TrEMBL record:
<dbReference type="Pfam" id="PF13426">
    <property type="entry name" value="PAS_9"/>
</dbReference>
<dbReference type="InterPro" id="IPR003594">
    <property type="entry name" value="HATPase_dom"/>
</dbReference>
<dbReference type="InterPro" id="IPR004358">
    <property type="entry name" value="Sig_transdc_His_kin-like_C"/>
</dbReference>
<dbReference type="GO" id="GO:0000155">
    <property type="term" value="F:phosphorelay sensor kinase activity"/>
</dbReference>
<dbReference type="InterPro" id="IPR036890">
    <property type="entry name" value="HATPase_C_sf"/>
</dbReference>
<dbReference type="GO" id="GO:0016020">
    <property type="term" value="C:membrane"/>
</dbReference>
<dbReference type="GO" id="GO:0007234">
    <property type="term" value="P:osmosensory signaling via phosphorelay pathway"/>
</dbReference>
<dbReference type="InterPro" id="IPR000014">
    <property type="entry name" value="PAS"/>
</dbReference>
<dbReference type="GO" id="GO:0030295">
    <property type="term" value="F:protein kinase activator activity"/>
</dbReference>
<dbReference type="InterPro" id="IPR035965">
    <property type="entry name" value="PAS-like_dom_sf"/>
</dbReference>
<feature type="domain" description="PAS">
    <location>
        <begin position="278"/>
        <end position="351"/>
    </location>
</feature>
<keyword id="KW-0418">Kinase</keyword>
<keyword id="KW-1133">Transmembrane helix</keyword>
<feature type="domain" description="HAMP">
    <location>
        <begin position="193"/>
        <end position="245"/>
    </location>
</feature>
<feature type="domain" description="Histidine kinase">
    <location>
        <begin position="421"/>
        <end position="671"/>
    </location>
</feature>
<dbReference type="Pfam" id="PF00672">
    <property type="entry name" value="HAMP"/>
</dbReference>
<feature type="domain" description="PAC">
    <location>
        <begin position="353"/>
        <end position="403"/>
    </location>
</feature>
């Protein structure tokens, strides 16, 4: 049996080596033949393309193909430089050879010019000594106007490829035989040493074990797998020797397993007790909870009520337990019972529900309760836990807050009415004071004592300042009551800015401040009230002067930009469409003390002044002077009436580092939006 296995392994190895090497050599020969053919085809195409280019250059001069001379010599030159090329032929439009490297190719078999620009064919050529086979590559020859007038053919003989392959076959066969002999010898050596010898050793050991020699130990063998097999056979022998002991050990293990099962049973009993205690703890927590809790079963009956629920509803637990949900709601005189039933049904489905309801306690008294309902699972049953919280006091507080808010709104309206009334009542006596003061200081100056004249001048200045405050109060009152009328006209915003700067040039000089103006002259005119826009700019620039230290810098610039803005849809609905509209932006930047972030929205409120009110000053542009707090409010009102926006940007208030502020004024070119807007996009840069 041993020899039979050895022979089979040897024969099988020989067949595998022979087939593998033969197949590999055959594929190498086929690949070599294919690569050689492709290489010669590419060389033929390259030569044909070069010949075609030479011919087409002559055709471009107006000469006919058949009248060209020297093409046969050109073909022979190609043949001399490429020994593997068999022929070079130029045919006319009908496929008739005109020029050839060899006269025997005058009977060229191709008779058609149709086909692609580059064509390859395998053809045979009848000769007296027999038929020769060639690989032909041809390219079309075209005139300058694109007309096909012939083909340039370059070909090589099949015998060139065959000769190349024949040499390769002879070389491969020699190497194949040599490699087969060497490989087969190595295989035979490997089989004898590393297969048959370990198998013989293992067979001898197994026979001894089968005869009862469990103490036998098979020695080490050279092959890892056979050595592992020998080790396992040794282990099997030891296992057979100790099987009685293993059976006893298994019996003891079964006994220990039985003891562990008993211990697991005892643990399960303890877990059951712990679960019962947890359930009692849940009931205890529920009983002592600060909120009223009611548990509804899957049959919509009351299963559990805690102590707080008894106090909350005014009913004892025994009066509520077991009642259907509907009956309990009727007992509590709860309104909209179907809605509350839906809340409990949704909660049973897994949703967390919350709602307010009004109920009547047993002892009397209406209460507002906030109920939260959620589902809990007890075994296979789904319960609904409802938590009731008394929010009657909270609702009273909210009602009081709403009443206080309404009172504050009423007081605000009274303040606005008082503002209009006070400004109207102060205007007449101020006019009289200013008139008499002007009369004394001008017409009667020579009749009045100089000291009195100085007093009257101070009175006139104070009256003028008070008149300005009254005018601001009138403007604020008219803006609040929407009675301020605008005289709309075409306004050149850049000219208004220049006029404002010129008007306040004295204050810039007095405070030694630098002013820079950057105006975009391409911006279009804006529709607005020039007087009110001038007032707007004066207030903003004056504010910048007041809160910028001496020697500071103020920069005023203008630009145009397109922004998205909502317009009425025209369908009567509240929805608004978003369209791009042209806006003009004015920015006033200073290097002043800055504004806190929490004050940046409130500075546009009436009578709001940032900082300490004790810093109030009568100086118009004194540093950090506080006024009546109406300038920015009037500015915002004017911007709003023009359909624009105004806001301020600042990193914060710092009177030592001077972070500065930037006021942005955004004005639409057409305050009243219409369907036909002028296209100013070409003016933007």
């Amino acid at each position: 049996m041993k020899m039979t296995l050895e022979k089979r392994i040897t024969l099988f190895s020989f067949l595998i080596l022979f087939v593998t090497m033969f197949a590999g050599s055959g594929m190498d020969i086929m690949a070599l033949q294919r690569d050689h053919v492709n290489s010669l085809n590419l060389r033929s195409q390259s030569l044909a393309t070069a010949l075609k280019a030479s011919i087409e250059k002559v055709l471009n001069l107006g000469l006919e193909l058949k009248d060209m001379g020297g093409l046969s010599e050109k073909c022979r030159e190609i043949m001399e430089g490429n020994p593997d090329i068999a022929y070079c032929v130029v045919t006319d439009a009908n496929g008739v050879p005109i020029f050839a490297s060899d006269p025997r190719f005058q009977n060229f078999p191709i008779r058609s010019i149709a086909g692609p620009d580059v064509a390859r064919n395998r053809m045979d050529l009848k000769e007296p000594r027999g038929t020769s086979y060639f690989y032909d590559t041809s390219v079309l020859i075209k005139t300058p106007d694109g007309r096909n007038v012939g083909r340039a053919h370059i070909g090589f003989a099949e015998a060139v490829v065959t000769e190349k392959v024949r040499g390769m076959i002879f070389k491969n066969l020699s190497l194949l035989i040599l490699a087969l002999i060497l490989s087969f010898s190595l295989v035979v050596f490997f089989v004898k040493r590393y297969v048959m010898r370990p198998i013989s050793t293992l067979l001898t050991g197994v026979k001894q074990i089968s005869e009862g020699g469990f103490d036998i130990q098979i020695g080490e063998v050279d092959v890892f797998e056979f050595n592992e097999l020998a080790r396992n056979v040794n282990l099997m022998a030891r296992f057979l020797k100790n099987r009685d002991e293993e059976i006893k050990n298994n019996y003891q293990e079964m006994q220990r397993t039985l003891d562990e099962l008993h211990d697991s049973y005892l643990k399960l009993e303890r877990l059951s007790s712990d679960l019962e205690r947890s359930e009692n703890l849940y009931k205890s927590l529920m009983e002592d909870a600060s909120d009223a809790i009611v548990v509804i079963g899957s049959d919509e009956s009351v299963r559990m009520v805690n102590k707080m629920a008894e106090e909350f509803f005014g009913y004892e637990a025994k009066e509520l337990l077991g009642l259907p949900l509907t009956k309990m709601l009727l007992l509590l005189n709860i309104g909209n019972i179907p809605k509350l039933q839906r809340i409990f049904q949704n909660a049973a489905g897994g949703a967390h529900m919350a709602d307010e309801m009004q109920l009547l306690k047993k002892g009397g008294g209406i209460m507002v309760a906030l109920v939260h309902a959620s589902s809990i699972r007890s075994g296979d049953e789904v319960l609904v836990q409802a938590i009731f919280r008394d929010v009657t006091r909270e609702r009273e507080i909210i009602a009081n807050l709403e009443k206080s808010s309404a009172d504050l709104a009423r007081l605000n309206r009274m303040k606005d009415s008082f503002l209009g009334l006070a400004s109207h009542e102060l205007k007449t006596p101020l006019t009289v004071i200013m008139g008499y003061s002007e009369l004394i200081t001008s017409d009667m100056a020579d009749k009045v004592d100089p000291t009195v004249l100085e007093m009257v001048s101070n009175i006139a200045n104070a009256a003028a300042r008070l008149d300005n405050i009254v005018k601001d109060m009138v403007d604020v009152s008219m803006i609040d009551e929407k009675r301020l009328q605008l005289k709309m006209e075409e306004v050149q915003l850049n000219r208004l800015i220049e006029a404002t700067v010129n008007e306040m040039r004295f204050f810039f000089s007095m405070r030694k401040q630098e002013v820079e103006v950057h105006l975009d002259e391409s911006i279009p005119p804006v529709r607005g009230d020039s007087v009110r826009l001038m007032q707007l700019l004066s207030n903003i620039v004056g504010n910048a002067i007041k809160f910028t230290p001496d020697g500071g810098k103020i920069t005023i610039s203008s630009s145009a930009k397109y922004l998205l803005r909502g317009i009425p849809s025209g369908t009567g609905s509240s929805e608004q469409a978003k369209e791009h509209h042209l806006f003009l932006e004015i920015t006033v930047a200073d290097t002043g003390i800055g504004i806190d972030r929490e004050d940046q929205l409130r500075i546009f409120d009436k009578f709001y002044e940032v900082g300490n009110i004790q810093e109030h000053s009568s100086g118009k542009v004194a540093f950090k002077a506080k006024g009546a707090g109406l300038g920015l409010s009037i500015a915002k009102g004017i911007v709003d009436m023009h359909g624009g926006e105004i806001w301020v940007e600042s990193t914060g208030y710092n009177p030592e580092r001077f972070p500065g502020s930037i006021f942005h004024i955004l004005l639409p070119v057409n305050p009243v939006l219409s369907e036909t807007l002028t296209d100013y996009a070409r003016l933007l840069r």
